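re: that chain from earlier
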Amino acid sequence: MNQSIWERRQAVASRLEGHVRQERQVRDEFETALAAASLDAHDVDPDGHLGRAVMAVAHLAADTPGFDVLLGLSSGGHGVRVHAGPDGLAQVQVVELTTRESEAGADPAPAAVASELAALLWQR
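^ sequence. v structure.
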């Protein structure tokens, strides 16, 4: 497989363009999902940390078929779901957190969720 430098540069440029398109799509979906849930992005994510975390998780989702993770918002009533769609692209939704555990008053184990997310990020 003897590729020229130009062909390799074109392949890299194409992959980078794909990543940029995906980032734009994820950012737009995140903002739209927050608005649809009647949440203000400046209140939910004043420093932009959540947006960057969603972006990082979206890159994992795009590379992993069946990927599905829920990031809880600090408000406690909503979460951001990042999952791989049927087309293999990452999809972002803001969902209301109403589970049997929250209805019963039990807190989920945040340390377990954080360690699972950290393990997923380090696998990459």
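The chain has five helices and three strands.
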